Amino acid sequence: MWRDALLVAGKDLRIELRSRVAVWQVLPFALLCLVLFAFALGPGPGPLRAAAPGLFWLAVLFSTVLATQRSFAIESGEGLRDGLRLSGLDPAGVFLGKAAAVGAQLFVLEVVLWAGIALLFGVRIHSFWLAGLSAVLATIGLASAGVIYGALSAGLRVRETLLPLLVLPIVAPVLLAASRAWAGALTGAVGAGTDWLRILGPFAVVYVTVGILLYGPLLEAG
């Protein structure tokens, strides 16, 4: 399973490095979201700083949908999914590999987005371990949920419009918990922020487990 996961993750990441879709489309989209959010809240620094954690994770959430759609778009050609089924790869390994590739892209995106947040909104992190741990757990949960629902909608003609409708309501708890955890990391209220890890941790574990167990049937159904 782990060998197959490395193969699939390496394949997806190499495709992204060569196509540079994440660099030229997903990243500019996320940064544009931040700029538009800043315009919507106005020039005053107070509202921008207060809303920075939520706006950061909202931009990450929208970018997750784009990254997931791209992950399955590279296999949407005729016969490609059939070839994946017949390749002999462990479905659990395929799930872990695709989730790892999406998660790696999100991690890079989050670093760049945070630089944009710090520049535009003038905020800084007081608790790096809380911000880092919540980012890791949230990214695992977002990538895993995105790949599961991406596989569920991959075989449908309306997958581009159906995927956001499936993913966004499901990952709303991640948006809430990650935003509150990052608010604690930014303000120094570590105790209040740590409480929200109790949502991010189980969410990540549940969706990784569901993906490992059910990705095979989802792949066959697609």
Describe this structure in words.
The protein contains 10 helices and no strands. α3 crosses α7, α6 crosses α7 and α6 runs parallel beside α10. It is mainly α. The chain has one domain. Helices cover 86% and strands 0% of the residues.
Give a quick rundown of the structure.
By secondary structure, the protein is mostly helical. 86% of the residues lie in helices and 0% in strands.
Anisotropy-based shape: globular
Order of helices and strands: HHHHHHHHHH
Helix content: over 70%
Unreliable parts? none
* CA-atom Rg in angstroms: 18 Å
Q: Which structural class do the helices and strands define? A: mainly alpha
Assembly level: single chain
Average predicted confidence as pLDDT: 84
What proportion of the residues form beta strands (DSSP E)? under 5%
Calculate the terminal CA-CA distance, rounded to whole Å.
21 Å
The largest sheet is: none
Alpha plus pi helix count: 10
What is the total domain count?
Answer: 1
Strand segment count: 0
Write the layout of secondary structure elements.
Layout (H helix, E strand, L loop, with lengths): L1 H18 L1 H21 L3 H29 L6 H6 L5 H31 L6 H26 L5 H12 L1 H16 L2 H6 L1 H25 L1
Helix pairs in contact: 1-5, 2-3, 2-5, 3-5, 3-6, 3-7, 3-8, 5-6, 5-10, 6-7, 6-8, 6-10, 8-10
